[in-house]
Design a protein that fits this description.
The structure holds two protein chains of two kinds. By secondary structure, chain A is mostly helical. Chain A is built from eleven helices and no strands. Chain A has one domain. Chain A is elongated, with a radius of gyration of 19 Å. By secondary structure, chain B is an alpha/beta fold. Chain B folds into two domains: about 210 residues, Rossmann fold (3-Layer(aba) Sandwich); about 60 residues, Alpha-Beta Plaits (2-Layer Sandwich), CATH 3.30.70. Chain B has a six-stranded mixed sheet with strand order 5-6-7-3-8-9, with helices on both faces. The model of chain B has no long low-confidence stretch (mean pLDDT about 90). The chains are: A mainly alpha, B alpha/beta. At the A-B interface, helix 1 and helix 5 of A face helix 2 and helix 3 of B. Chain B: Belongs to the ABC transporter superfamily. Chain B: This is ATPase component of ABC-type multidrug transport system. Chain B: It is found in: Cell membrane. Chain B: Keywords: Antibiotic resistance, ATP-binding, Nucleotide-binding, Transport.
Chain lengths: ~260, ~300
């Protein structure tokens, strides 16, 4: 009786995704507030609340503030969700639930666990983004089909943040206090300063480079350009190259760190 | 082909930096047998198991599992192994049944196949009535049974169990042993690590005693007792500090003095006890028993705590 053989590497990655989907199907309610409602709260509070005091002008591309905010909030939401999905769930897989150890006792390899995990984060970002776009459309702040491309760019920005963070999370041994500085000194300042709520040109010249290195600024530039359909080749190519490079390097490091930790 | 060893290791070594956890061991596990690794904590049992399970690369020596090299054919070998880790890694937020199905899918088995297999394994592990409960609230014994059931989802030829019953109550341990016997009868080859002597005597056809990364002895439980201990042991109990081994020194092959007892290793315990009485030795109580693997184990690995 021949036993089972190892699945094809791509099937293996999707089997990792499938197991996370089965978890999600049971537990999605607990994740709705942070992944979908938080960005909506921001959009409503800032876009409609604060935005009621802001005159459409050159800085907002002539659009009402909520419309101006919508594509940027899509990117900011993706990056925030990426942060949540790439920290404690990763640590848990190694340390608390230990599910990664169970997976790698099967034909699945540590590298496939890493890439499967990143694929799952990608799906989560796409899914949350779609819900956010639907909410935005219902609130009347979506100007056209360009928002679909905004969603793609937002997810790319999310992955550019998620991949290096997953690589970092795979090296954490403690109880996860190492993630606190990530949220306090990276995620929060990035959300505030990377051009989501106002153009980066309004920042003091000294602070602007900080915004430029964040994946969110590049994602925001792309998402707005797509939503308002003023895409120009070189800026788009440059922003995308930066985000793809972060994603690629992060994914390579994640694979390396998963291999090191699971294959001792 | 069927007579080829399932696991063959020569000079197998595992180093973590300077520390040599496994210091060059030779093992051969044949199809259909139950093979045990016995040893104190830190003896290198788990490191050996992880190398055999193809999740931990070896630092030296040769290793072949199911006729293949773990370094090059890890996924192919793991497809035919079942692994019960020392520490459960069930998905606590899924149901009992989902744990089996999800795990089966990792082997590339079809959804239909894992659905049927899960039902069969739930029966085997006596968990059918908890099938749709979450794993989290299950007792330790139930989780252990589920972990064993999960390890069988791919019908493995070789089952690796790392301390399968540590931390379980006697009822749970006996139920687990019963399940493992059944697997053995079905022809599954078992490799077990344990530091419970009764478990080793119950389960293993052949075992090695490991100590400090090396193999200290190898054989069947009966052979080991025969080789490293005497047939019987006479235990003479005294109030602490009042035992004097001098008068019984020559009554057995070996005498061991413990804080409250003198152990006389002898072929005939009753005769040694009678001789002790005639020499005026008056213990508080005495006991004649057969030698066990525990005597072998303590002789080979010492009574000092290692961790």
């Amino acid at each position: 009786m021949p036993g089972p053989t190892a699945p094809h590497p791509w099937q293996a990655r999707f089997l990792v995704v499938e197991s996370m989907w089965i978890w999600y199907r049971r537990n999605w309610r607990a994740t709705v507030v942070s992944t979908v409602l938080n960005p909506v709260f921001f959009l409503v509070a800032m876009g409609f609340g604060l935005g009621s005091q802001i005159q459409p002008g050159a800085a907002t591309g002539g659009y009402g503030y909520a419309v101006y905010l919508m594509p940027a909030m899509l990117a900011a939401g993706a990056v925030q969700n990426a942060a949540g999905e790439s920290t404690f769930p990763i640590l848990s897989g190694f340390k608390w639930s230990r599910v990664y150890w169970g997976m790698t006792a099967t034909p699945i390899t540590p590298a496939q666990v890493a890439t499967g995990q990143l694929l799952w984060i990608l799906f989560r970002l796409v899914f949350s983004g779609i819900v956010f776009v639907i909410v935005g459309a219902a609130l009347g702040v979506v100007t056209g089909a360009g928002i679909i491309l905004s969603l793609v760019f937002a997810v790319l920005a999310g992955m550019a943040f998620a991949a290096p963070l997953v690589a970092f999370a795979a090296t954490i041994e403690g109880e996860g206090t190492a993630f606190n500085p990530v949220f306090r000194f990276i995620v929060l300042p990035m959300t505030l300063l990377a051009g989501t709520f106002f153009p980066v040109t309004e920042l003091p010249a000294l602070v602007r480079p900080i915004a430029w290195i964040t994946p969110l600024w590049h994602g925001t530039e792309l998402a707005r350009a797509a939503a308002f359909w003023n895409l120009e080749f070189w800026p788009v190519a440059g922003h995308m190259a930066y985000l793809l490079a972060l994603t690629g390097i992060g994914a390579a490091l994640a694979v390396r760190n998963f291999r090191r930790r699971l294959g001792v | 082909m069927a007579d080829d060893p399932l696991v063959l290791a020569e000079g197998l070594t595992k180093r973590f930096g300077e520390f040599e956890a496994v210091a060059g061991i030779d093992i051969e596990v044949r199809r259909g047998e139950a093979f045990g690794f016995l040893g104190p904590n830190g003896a290198g049992k788990s490191s050996t198991m992880r190398m055999v399970a193809c999740v931990s690369p070896r630092s030296g020596g040769t290793l072949s599992v199911l006729g293949m090299d773990p370094d090059t054919d890890g996924p192919k070998i793991r497809a035919r192994l079942g692994v019960v880790p020392q520490q459960d890694n069930l998905d606590n937020e899924l149901t009992v049944r989902q744990n089996l199905q999800v795990y089966g899918r990792y082997f590339g088995l079809s959804r239909k196949h894992v659905r049927d297999k899960a039902t069969e394994l739930l029966e085997f592990a006596q968990l059918s009535d908890r099938a749709d409960d979450e794993v989290d609230p299950l007792s330790g014994g139930m989780k252990r049974r589920l972990t064993i059931a999960r390890s069988l989802v791919n019908d493995p030829e070789l089952l690796l169990l790392d301390e399968p019953t540590t931390g379980l109550d006697p009822q749970a341990r006996h139920l687990l042993w019963d399940r493992l016997f059944r697997l053995k009868q079905q022809g599954v080859t078992l490799i077990v690590t344990t530091h419970y002597m009764d478990e080793a005597e119950q389960l293993c056809d052949r075992l090695v005693v490991m100590d400090k990364g090396k193999i200290a002895a190898e054989g069947s439980p009966a052979q080991l007792i025969d080789r490293y201990s005497t047939k019987e042991v006479l235990e003479l109990r005294f109030p602490p500090g009042q035992q004097d081994p001098a008068p019984v020194q020559d009554l057995g092959e070996r005498v061991e003095v413990l804080p409250d007892r003198i152990l006389v290793y002898t072929t005939d315990g009753e005769a040694s006890l009678a001789a002790a009485h005639t020499r005026g030795v008056t213990p508080v109580s005495s006991l004649v028993r057969r030698s066990t693997l525990e005597d072998v184990f303590l002789r080979l690995t010492g009574r000092t705590l290692v961790d």
